[in-house]
Amino acid sequence: MKPYIVLMLLLFTLSACISHHHRIDGDHMILILRYPDAKKVVLFCSLDGYKPRVAKKVSNDWETEMPSGETFRYFYQVDDKPFLPHCSMREKDDFGFENCIYDPHL
Q1: Which pLDDT belongs to residue 106?
Q2: What strands, in cross-sheet order, belong to the sheet with 61-67?
Q3: What is the mean pLDDT of each run of 10 residues along the chain (106 residues)?
Q4: CA–CA separation, 6 vs 67, rounded Å?
Q5: What is the DSSP secondary structure assignment for residue 70, as one 8-state letter?
Q6: What's 7-22 look like in SS3?
Q7: At the N or C end, where does the chain have fewer CB atoms within 10 A?
Q8: Contact at 8 Å (CB) between 102 and 32?
Q9: CA triplet 104, 34, 41: central angle to 5 degrees?
Q10: CA atoms of 77 and 59, how far apart (whole Å)
Q11: Do 4 and 11 contact (CB within 8 A), yes or no?
């Protein structure tokens, strides 16, 4: 039972450190990934054929600017490893991984 409690505390601690949200800024949306220990964050999204978009570090957050009215799929690469944040809509891709889906109409 004790290892289970330690694991739950560790997961809770990590979830408090890593979060994901967005804000609308005019006709742009800023995707924000709070990942304070990351050295490099890159966003890949369907709007441009999954070309890498290097995120900008702002304090403990990583920010990437996107158009606000478009639906798109995306995932991150954090320190050269794929990373999918908590998101309400997901889908499997052709490679056995998942992508988040952003839909401005929902």
Answers
A1: 83
A2: 19-25, 28-34, 61-67, 56-58
A3: 48 58 90 95 96 96 92 96 94 92 90
A4: 41
A5: -
A6: HHHHHHHHHHHCEEEE
A7: N
A8: no
A9: 90
A10: 19
A11: no
Give whole-number Cα distances, 72 to 17, 49, 50, in Å: 26, 10, 10
Distances in whole angstroms, Cα of residue 17 to Cα of each of 9, 13, 29, 44, 79: 13, 7, 22, 22, 16
pLDDT of residue 105: 87
Total length of the chain: 106
Contact present, 79 and 67 (Cβ < 8 Å): no
Q: Residue 40: CB partners within 8 Å, gap ≥ 6?
A: 54, 78, 79, 80
Identity of the residue numbered 34: R
